[in-house]
Sequence to fold (504 residues):
Amino acid sequence: MTQTTAPQVTEPVAHVLVGGSTHPAPLAPVVNPALTSETVGWTAMGTETDADLAVRTAHHAFAAWSALTPAERGAYLEDAAAALDPTGEERARLLVREQGKVLWEARMETGRVGDMLRYYSSLAEEVAAEKVTVDARGTLRVRRRPMGVTAIIVPWNAPVYLAFLAVAPALVAGNTIVVKPSELAPLALTETLTTLATVLPEGVVNVVPGDGAVVGAALSAHPLVRKVLFTGSTATGQAVMRAAAGTVKNIGLELGGNDPAIVLESARITDQLIGELVKGVYTGTGQICFNVKRIYVHESRYREFLDAFTAAVDEIVVGPGLHPEATMGPLNNEPQLRRVEELVERARAGGADVATLGRKLDPETWGSGYFLLPSVVSGLPDDAELVRCEQFGPTVPVLPFRDEDDVVDRANDTEFGLAASLWTEDVDHAFDLSRRIESGTVFVNVHRLGASDITMPFGGMKRSGIGRNHGIVAIEGCTEMQVVAHRVDHERLPGPHLYGQEGS
Fold:
């Protein structure tokens, strides 16, 4: 992104926020993906020095914040939720303009922040609970302790929601945080975090926008950061792991996916099934980590499904996300647009049948944004690039299969393992078959935004990540287990001879 000195602007600015105060930094424009000539706002391009100051500030604040009880920290989150609730609509409209998604998706994202803070506040008693065992040997206590400074590195596709899935559990666990928003969609998130920072004690919440190779790398390697929570591509996740290894940090990674949907022979091709799968592929313009990336359909249902699915996709209206008629917005940025366009063209050049569908809301201004019509691709072999990769855009391959052993092998033949879905009238059979699917989540008769609610653990297998988000397990992932053992009956303890020594 082009950087400049601080302009005299009235647009929103994603500042470096350290200890409750903003810090000067070079600025770069944040453009509207639906109208790239429009500057929505400006983002600070933080430096390694900014990252270091933010971490040290968070480290200084950690002692007092972690000394509070979980219930006391939860009360702060409740107050923050109340402060954020009235601004949800304003932030949703800002999110549409900087990210590109349609308004209902943005409202769903920004409007749930208060609910997330309240939900994690409600888990405070579980955070505080100790497991105590008393027997003839003495007393054993097992408890959870906060880790320290937690770095949260956020992607551009759902910046507010994905950030707070990490922010809320990290804070209620007793950690202080440094958040790095994406430079491509930092505005709504930074505004949200700034409000949060005004409610919580000084230094608990810090924000350093900027380039991932600069700020993200500095946070991942910083010796005072004890936990890194990253959501993004597998390649960047590998870079985070390498940077964190030097100080043996605890890391949580939610990475890429190549998520299969399997329409079994027992499925009925109803309007509901088709509608759910259209949402599962094209919500967020296909830019959601666990969206459906490939669809396998039993050969006896294949033609019926393909015809109905294609007809439904053809109803999509593509345009600016704030327009009431738009049902799909632009892609977020030009590199992503070009990548998806090239994937589709290579599939077509390889002999695939590419159905380009949907309607342009305004053909005259089409070239002013990162717009792409949705497509459905058939006639591809399993080794085709579009079948093997995470396309992260509004296109999907549809492939037939003959039997379940065949489709399970094909679904699992990937380096990814984030989510999958089974579509059938026989739910019990789907539960049994799910045991053979190599993914962190297997949905049954659903696979879309909203299907993985905040109480349900979520994360990937294989190269799709490490750790789990959502629910109490997200808080546990932001804590260290501590065992306190008071042993009084030494005669009952195993002797050193168990370790290859003589004596007692």
